[in-house]
């Protein structure tokens, strides 16, 4: 094994250089995949927030199907200084039942 490594070093081939070259395309594919997943997540979150921010009916649908996501929405807009949206929604939904 030592002889093989010495021959590779004399020839200018280190044992890890060949392996690094074969790993580069895989690493690039993994990086691109992670980047695409992150971009889809960011645009998906933006779309969801924008839809909830502009449609009270959509927020009502979210309250039935995904109440935890709606809670995150309410908390985020309250953090930004917008208060009363939760109360307006609850009042409208309560009045629409009657």
From TrEMBL:
For whether the record's keyword set contains Transmembrane helix, the answer is yes
Record's protein name: Protein CEBPZOS isoform X1
The membrane spanning regions, by residue number, are 30-49
Q: Which UniProt keywords are listed?
A: Membrane, Transmembrane, Transmembrane helix
List the InterPro entries.
CEBPZOS
Top-rank taxon, per record: Eukaryota
Native organism: Puma concolor
């Amino acid at each position: 094994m030592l002889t093989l490594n010495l021959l590779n070093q004399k020839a200018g081939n280190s044992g890890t250089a060949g392996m690094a070259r074969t790993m580069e395309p895989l690493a690039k594919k993994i990086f691109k995949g992670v980047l695409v997943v992150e971009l889809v997540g960011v645009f998906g979150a933006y779309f969801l927030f924008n839809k909830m921010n502009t449609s009270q009916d959509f927020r009502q649908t979210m309250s039935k199907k995904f109440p935890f996501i709606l809670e995150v929405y309410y908390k985020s807009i309250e953090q930004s200084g917008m208060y009363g949206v939760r109360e307006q929604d609850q009042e409208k939904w309560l009045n629409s039942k009657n």
